[in-house]
Design goal:
single chain, 10-stranded mixed beta sheet, Jelly Rolls
Length: 316
């Protein structure tokens, strides 16, 4: 098992408090989408949100997505290839195009693809202030649309998301980045994930941050969320090298963003009910999905970040 990425290790050691592992009254005895009573601290919100992250990664009908590539190393080429093959639109945030170019050259060398079409050339758009874009990358993607936005009040990440939302309103977005580099860059990615998921009904489309280690997304407060983490009956094409019916490992974090939250859960090794969580107090990190759980459930009175580990497999 590879060592955790530096950002995640720092994030857990500095900012988190160990999951409060009490049994008894902390365990949920009855938790369904139609009937679940929160305690007095957190009134139930209307309805229930269903999540199908496996189908999202597969680009299943009804789960089409725009892929945004950030200026971070692509540490899982197979996962990237799966997402690239299913993305409806592909947008690189400035230096993200360099990362695609670097990967294309690596694939060409390793696979000996001389005389065959170069990989990953069908990038739709490169957008940003373009201060990171190299000449080689610009030439490689000469058929792609290149948009220079010199405005410095927003990041290249934000410019890419704004473009996607403008041209494809309501479409889901998967951002290919990584939390394994500098801590400030990792926090910036989480900040943007939260910033661009403001609608309580996800009217603007759902947004995901994926790396070689994990998938993360925002669960809006006041609503019950059912997250289908395994789909054993799903039909998955043989062309997928990384995404499967069961792509997730057991580790999960449910982290408050913006303000303290009160959470209740079902389907985890350490379920909680009406459990206060906040930075500087305690946080639910390194919880485990139960081996027989196909669906896990979370309710919080305020927005929380849900992050689940991806199984580590060979990229050969």
């Amino acid at each position: 098992m590879p060592h955790p990425a530096p950002f995640l290790a720092t994030f857990r050691s500095v900012l988190s408090y160990h999951l409060y592992r009490r049994g008894g009254d902390q365990s949920l005895r009855s938790f369904t989408c139609s009937s679940f009573e929160m305690g007095s601290n957190s009134p139930p919100g209307p309805g229930c949100r269903e999540w199908y992250p496996v189908r999202q990664l597969l680009g299943y009908p009804g789960h089409e997505f725009i892929l945004i590539i950030l200026h971070q190393p692509i540490r899982d080429p197979c996962l990237f290839g799966d997402l690239w093959s299913k993305a409806e639109t592909k947008i690189a945030a400035d230096g993200g195009a360099n990362r695609i170019y670097d990967l294309s050259q690596r694939v060409a060398r390793e696979k000996g693809t001389a005389g065959t079409p170069e990989p990953f050339t069908d990038l739709d758009t490169i957008i940003g202030d373009l201060d990171s874009l190299t000449d080689q990358t610009r030439q490689y993607f000469s058929h792609s649309r290149i948009i220079r936005e010199r405005e410095q009040e927003s990041t290249d990440f934000a410019k890419a998301v704004n473009l996607a939302r403008k041209e494809s309103p309501g479409r889901d977005i998967i951002c290919m980045g990584g939390l394994g580099g500098r801590v400030d860059q990792g926090l910036s990615q989480l900040h943007h994930l939260y910033l661009f998921q403001k609608s309580p009904t996800y009217a603007d489309g759902r947004m995901y941050l994926v790396s070689g280690d994990s998938l993360s997304f925002i669960l809006k407060g006041g609503v019950r969320h059912r997250i289908r983490v395994r789909e054993p009956a799903l039909d998955v094409a043989d062309t997928f090298r990384r995404v499967s019916r069961d792509p997730f490992a057991k580790h999960v974090g449910i982290i408050p963003v913006g303000e303290p939250a009160v959470i209740s859960t079902k389907g985890f090794e350490w379920d909680v009910r009406d459990w206060d969580t906040a930075f500087g107090y305690r946080m639910s990190t390194s919880n485990h999905v139960l081996p027989d759980s196909e669906v896990v459930e979370v309710q919080a009175d305020k927005d929380v970040l849900f992050t689940i580990a991806l199984k580590q497999v060979s990229n050969d």
